[in-house]
Amino acid sequence: MSAFPKTRLRRLRRTDRLRGLVRETRLDLDDFVMPLFVGPESLTNPELPAMGRFSVDDVLSEADVLAGLGVRAALLFGIPEEKDEEASGAYDDDGIIQAALRALRGRHPELLLLTDVCLCEYTSHGHCGVIRDGEVANDESLDLIARTAVSHAEAGADAVCPSDMMDGRVGAVREALDDAGFEQIPIVSYAAKYASAFYGPFREAAESAPAFGDRRGYQMDAANVREAARELSLDVAEGADALIVKPALPYLDVIRAARERFDLPIAAYNVSGEYAMVKAAAGRGWMEERAAALESLTAIKRAGADFVVSYWTKELAGWL
Q1: Distance CA 129, CA 127 (A)
Q2: Which of 1, 148, 179, 263 has the CA that lies 20 to 30 A from 80?
Q3: Mean predicted lDDT score pLDDT of the chain
Q4: Which of 246, 279, 301, 314 is catalytic?
Q5: Is 6 designated active site?
Q6: In this structure, is residue 98 part of a structural domain?
Q7: Contact, 127 vs 83, CB < 8 A?
Q8: CA distance 102 to 58
């Protein structure tokens, strides 16, 4: 026998206050991380404001604004003045990220500073490791990735985020950090990072598009989810303290699978293409940006993400 009319689920949807009372998933600014691109000079991006670039001086000013809005965390990406085949700018003590960290650490000790640890922004060929005989050399790249992580810790990073998808890189970074006396620095690993079409605007902002080939030989195949579980498991075994799934919206099932299987904090990267699609549609009047962004971010949280890296973090501070 039908429960209707005694059971009416619309009763708790009738007003905004009722909907708020029974809401299952909530957005909290403390759960969001703002990506920041730091380079030799500042470059604005009027169409995609969060994809702009800051000089070291200007990133301090941007941090002033973010801190004033209540943003608690930032993820730093560096674009060096010069690139080479060995990505030497990535682990240079006077590199762009190292300089930004020291400046930010002195001015905003309360701001949580995470750093992207990869070689692609620093290599002349744009790949995430060194090239030997036309291919990315996994084991040789680990040393440089680990050196980069240590240099970030020395400059003041609160956490390092290896994003290269080399096999064994979490273990290499953990060992290097511990050997250098940074056993307290957590590793937030891009554990399931997919080869994705949604990275386009980021690659322009970070100047990191490969000069030849693509990254499908080390980033994950979009068709696989069981493989993601293996990647996540390996990173946990190697010492990861938190796990990132990237991208977010096309991989909500992966976020959910990670949440159900692992007790570690799970993060999701709401990537540049996801941000750009909504911005473009809103610019054409096809959807309302704030509503679409909040719905997207709620979906990511609902899937199981504990925290989210998002280009909407700054705007979210005003929306919430």
Answers
A1: 6
A2: 179
A3: 94
A4: 246
A5: no
A6: yes
A7: no
A8: 14
CA nearest neighbour of 115 among 190, 183, 7, 192: 190
Dist CA 259 CA 137 (whole Å): 32
Q: Give me the domain span that covers residue 241.
A: 26-319
Answer yes or no: is pLDDT of 212 > 80: no
What is the model's pLDDT at position 201? 81
- Does 246 participate in catalysis according to the annotation? yes
Torsion of CA 195, 200, 202, 206, to 10 degrees: 100
**305-320 confidence digits (pLDDT tens):** 999 999 999 999 999 9
- Per the structure block, which two tokens stand in for 141? 């790249």
Domain count, the chain: 1
3-state DSSP assignment of residue 120: coil
pTM surpassing 0.70? yes
CA distance 106 to 23: 40
Selected catalytic residue, list 193, 279, 301, 314: 193
What's the CATH number where 221 sits? 3.20.20.70
